[in-house]
Amino acid sequence: MVKKISQISFAIIMVLMLSGCKNTKQKLQEFVVKYNATASSFKAENVTLTTARGYINDNKIELRFETSLEQNDANKTAANTSFPKLLKDMFDKNQIPEELVNEGVQFDTYFLADDNTVFVKEIITKESLPQLLKE
């Protein structure tokens, strides 16, 4: 009887362990779904909307940050300073999981003007992440 209970318990534990192991592609998909579900509550200066798009075959996630800022040199200069700080803050708060980057997922991030033209584009990889987090 005890042996039977032990075998059943072992089987249940193994099933739970195997179902708890997710591969990078599953984590990528889950991140994109969760990010977009919570995007409406995202708060950052001048950001009006943020969205994520996953590219499973390329092991890449695209994050877009739309702003209320007009495309001009002054705003572009300010964006070059503020956008890396925003990204670092998102990593610090685990809004962008460092684990995904360390597993090889590339984040292409765009800080956009009110007309959807690009102020700043940051590509975050395992190699570039230490520099971003240092700033």
Q: What do you see in this structure?
A:
This is Lipoprotein. The protein is elongated. The relative contact order is 0.14. The mean pLDDT is 89. By secondary structure, it is an alpha+beta fold. It has one domain (22-134): GMP Synthetase, Chain A, domain 3. It is built from 5 helices and 4 strands; from the N terminus they run ααββααββα. The longest helix has 20 residues, at 73-92. A hairpin with a 5-residue loop joins strand 3 (106-112) and strand 4 (118-124).
Task: Show the helix and strand layout.
Elements: H1 2-20, H2 24-38, E1 47-55, E2 60-67, H3 73-92, H4 98-102, E3 106-112, E4 118-124, H5 129-134
Parallel strand pairs: 2-3
Antiparallel strand pairs: 1-2, 3-4
Organism: Flavobacterium ginsengiterrae
Protein name: Lipoprotein
Q: SSE order, as H and E?
A: HHEEHHEEH
Calculate Rg over CA atoms: 20 Å
**What would you call the structural class?**
alpha+beta
The number of helical segments is: 5
Oligomer: single chain
Characterize the main sheet. 4 strands, mixed
Total domain count:
1
CATH fold-level topology: GMP Synthetase, Chain A, domain 3
> What would CATH call the architecture?
2-Layer Sandwich
Task: Report the mean per-residue pLDDT as an integer.
Answer: 89
Give the termini distance in whole angstroms.
61 Å
Strand content: 15-25%
State the CATH class. Answer: Alpha Beta
Q: Strands of the biggest beta sheet: in what spatial order?
A: 1-2-3-4
The gross shape turns out to be elongated
- Which stretches are poorly predicted, pLDDT < 50 over at least 5 residues? none
Protein name: Lipoprotein
